[in-house]
Amino acid sequence: MLDQSIAYDSKIEGEIIVTRRDAVVNWIRRHSVWPMPMGLACCAIELMAAASSRFDVSRFGMEVMRFSPRQADCMIVAGTVTYKMAEVVRRIYDQMGDPKWVVAMGACASSGGMYRSYAVLQGVDRILPVDVYVSGCPPRPEALLDAMISLQHKIGYENSIDPADAQKTVEPL
Description:
Elements: E1 11-13, E2 16-18, H1 21-30, E3 35-39, H2 43-50, E4 74-78, H3 83-95, E5 101-105, H4 107-111, E6 132-134, H5 141-156, H6 163-166
Parallel strand pairs: 3-4, 4-5, 5-6
Antiparallel strand pairs: 1-2
Helix pairs in contact: 1-5, 2-5
């Protein structure tokens, strides 16, 4: 059965599917997200629960949590980010390959939470470009799954063609 969400202008002609290249690339990226947990506090426990068999995150295309930034394309920042840890979080983010996405899980990662002090970064979006925010203290695993589905939806509509490649044309044989 053909997934009709590949592109709005996709069509089947016999045994051939006609669509755009960026639609196929986005469909592949959307269904193969490799998350990397950055568990820094209480939200990490709920992140572990979301990865368990009860919630089965693999049914959404996020098979296994990767603990190496070079194997991951989605960083889930779960918990309080202190100023001392901010440099490490940024360095790990920079080691991830492109394209990459960030999910801020919980009130502390999103806005500093109840820790408004000199030592706590008031939101991870001050050092990383956050794609999806998950509210709660700590958020339930279902909220994280909903955020990952929202991220997949966002990935599906991104422009995956490099502007330099868009100018190239392919000559027919």
